[in-house]
């Protein structure tokens, strides 16, 4: 596990939480890019997806059955910038995020028959708002694969800084099991800069 203060310079270590997050994002996006030159994000995704199921004590068949019985809904994301790729395992019923103007997350089903994708302001593939819905407590519990750059040993997560998942989890964490897969132990820290709105994830895999 890496020591946070060792990867930031003395100057960076004295920054406030928000600036520290910004500096750390830059460093980690670059490190992940270098790592991706030698191994593919699809391979990281495959390894970590099956490890996640193992740790959750679920086989692929059991997960499918739970999905068919509406006991569970799986959600992930379309990867950008060498994010670990789990979307390559998506079945038609998996959910993907779309972001709204007021910074909320809506969802669409991968195989909903609406084949037209648009790009959001970050260049991420999504569907237009009329084909998306808001998650609510009366829907099946979510098994949510969250994107991000790094985790702390106690389950905090560093994302790109939109706060989308923090806001979503603040509302729905009781209905959601969050799984955060990372490409290697390099992205696990003893601690991370944390704001009061940061939500922990349930399972970190590296
Ligand atoms: N693949 C993927 N999809 C996702 C997320 C994600 O992190 N990864 N999100 C997770 O929330 C949401 C989108 N949030 C995002 C927030 C910021 C940036 C981003 O590129 N930010 C710029 C800085 C922009 C600025 O100047 O404010 C950057 O990091 O360079 C991307 C996605 C929903 N979909
Ligand atoms: N529960 C919340 N209520 C209101 N604002 C929030 C909440 N959670 C996060 N935010 C806002 O989101 C912004 C970004 O938060 P942060 O830097 O922690 O993002 P992140 O966790 O890296 O991003 P993401 O969750 O999108 O991957 C902050 O400026 C904060 O104001």
From TrEMBL:
Record-listed ATP binding positions: 21-25, 157-165
EC numbers on record: 6.3.3.2
GO biological process, one term: folic acid-containing compound biosynthetic process
Keywords for this protein: ATP-binding, Ligase, Magnesium, Metal-binding, Nucleotide-binding
Reaction catalyzed: (6S)-5-formyl-5,6,7,8-tetrahydrofolate + ATP = (6R)-5,10-methenyltetrahydrofolate + ADP + phosphate
Cofactor: Mg(2+)
UniProt superkingdom: Bacteria
Binding-site residues, substrate: 83
GO molecular-function terms, A-Z: 5-formyltetrahydrofolate cyclo-ligase activity; ATP binding; metal ion binding
SUPFAM superfamilies named in the record: NagB/RpiA/CoA transferase-like (SSF100950)
NCBIfam families (alphabetical): MTHFS_bact
Name of the protein: 5-formyltetrahydrofolate cyclo-ligase
Organism this protein belongs to: Fluviispira sanaruensis
